[in-house]
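Give me structure tokens for this 154-residue protein.
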Amino acid sequence: MSENQSLPFDHPRFRSWIAVGRACQSMQAALTKALAPLGLKPQHLDVMVNLYRFEGLTQQELARKLLVGRSNVSMTLPQLEKRGLIERQGDAVDRRVLRLKLTPSGRRTAEQAMAIQTALIEAVLSPAPMEHCTIVAETMEAMVPRLQAFEKSL
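Here you go.
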């Protein structure tokens, strides 16, 4: 930085950026500990929640919903398959396509994990007024496409 530029540490946007990053890291750490009794990690929960909501996704569709590459998903899926939590089924129309589904055990485990996640969110955010939660959510939702566009420009 040049002498004429101020350091960003006290700038409200910088402070907000750091606070969001810290909150995200802390929430991930807390969620990791909370899910441990189920033998799940946050990335497992992400996959299972999406398959719970959108049964029959392809691996590529799942990766797009998770905002990760297919390779990230392909490392997680075998772990869940091995535990009998998900299965791949052939598509009724296109035999080249495999659809991902939760098994009955996977569905029960996903419900338990979602209850853990919901309790954690409630415990952490219940002191905040709903209006504040809405503002934070809208701000973060608006930031995602801008970050994605920035990433693509690099």
